[in-house]
Amino acid sequence: MSFGAWGFRRITATNPSTAGEIYRAIQVLEDCVVTVDNKIGDDLSNQFLMAGTVVFGEFSSVSCTYGTILAYKARP
Fold first, then answer.
1. Is there a domain that residue 23 lies in?
2. Whole-angstrom distance, CA of residue 68 vs CA of residue 76
3. In whole angstroms, how far apart are CA 53 and each of 16, 20, 48, 59, 62?
4. Beta pairing partners, 23
């Protein structure tokens, strides 16, 4: 599995994830509060994450209330 081979989305409070896309990792660029729907395992709801944090999974939805993250797209 290669992260970034399918690109990424820059997610902010005003720019949520794209419907229908799946993400394999999120990288926090600025401290943020995120909500992610994980296809396998637990979801995160309004979870504070510090800049530099990377979370791996199979996410079908990614949003943040503030801050900036990169969501790495999974192979279509």
1. yes
2. 24
3. 19, 24, 10, 16, 15
4. 59, 73
Is residue 53 one of the residues assigned to a domain?
yes
Question: What's the CA dihedral at 22, 24, 27, 32 to 10 degrees?
Answer: 50
- For 43-53, what is each residue's pLDDT tens digit? 999 999 999 99
Residue type, 27: Q
Contacts of 65 (CB under 8 A, 6+ apart): 13, 32, 33, 34, 35, 46
Q: Which domain holds residue 16?
A: 8-73
pTM value is 0.86
In a domain, 2, yes or no: no
